[in-house]
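Exodeoxyribonuclease III: structure tokens wanted.
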Amino acid sequence: MKIATYNVNGINGRLAVLLRWLAEDRPDIAVLQELKAPDEKFPLSAIRELGYDAIWHGQTSWNGVAILSRVGEIHETRRGLPGDPDDSQSRYLEAAVNGILIGGLYLPNGNPRPGPKFDYKMRWFERLIDHAAGLIQTGLPVMIVGDFNVMPTERDVRRPERWLNDALFAPEVRSAYFRLLDQGWTDALRTIHSDETIYTFWKYWRGAFERNDGLRIDHLLLSPVLSERLVDAQVDTHVRGWEKSSDHAPAWVEISD
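Answer:
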């Protein structure tokens, strides 16, 4: 089973790119971020024409997450992270699909740092860590995937010295990521590409993609029972080069039956 994550950077404005990728790559399950569309503007009919069902958690102009499946029903289990009933940002969606519990997330960017946005990022991260602990304790096959807005190590950024004050590379953010992993999660991309340069995001300006001046901020984390079934994990880098593409590329993991 192939499960992908893709920050689409505006699902309606880049719908042609999303549909082309779905048609060509045919992931069994796709987790999307940054829909930038309210619930009523989600392009369900176009997605269903490719054989996918979907659930989504939208928000006007910002954020938004979705889970797509062509391998069975999507049983939604959670919409939004627990811990802050006043949090109105659409950043987390969780569902059981084909025997796997999947948490799809769009973790806050957090810039500028310091400031209120960074404080919100850290509070959101702590809520994620608390919720993830409960998920992994179930012993079930669980994945947490999406745009984490975290570069865990210097291997995950082309020029780390330029990002020292950025919220994506801040020491406390990287520490939170590894506290999450220490619960028992496996970083699938880094496991498969232990010593390789591999990115999932390239800025639009100054030819960053052409120079491979990128970041690895999209992650696929597997619970112990799923990590034993890990076959492969890759990034569809070529998609980033398509016309009007997102600044992210899809990343995916292959899990044995």
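The mean pLDDT is 97. The two ends are 7 Å apart (CA to CA).

Cheers.
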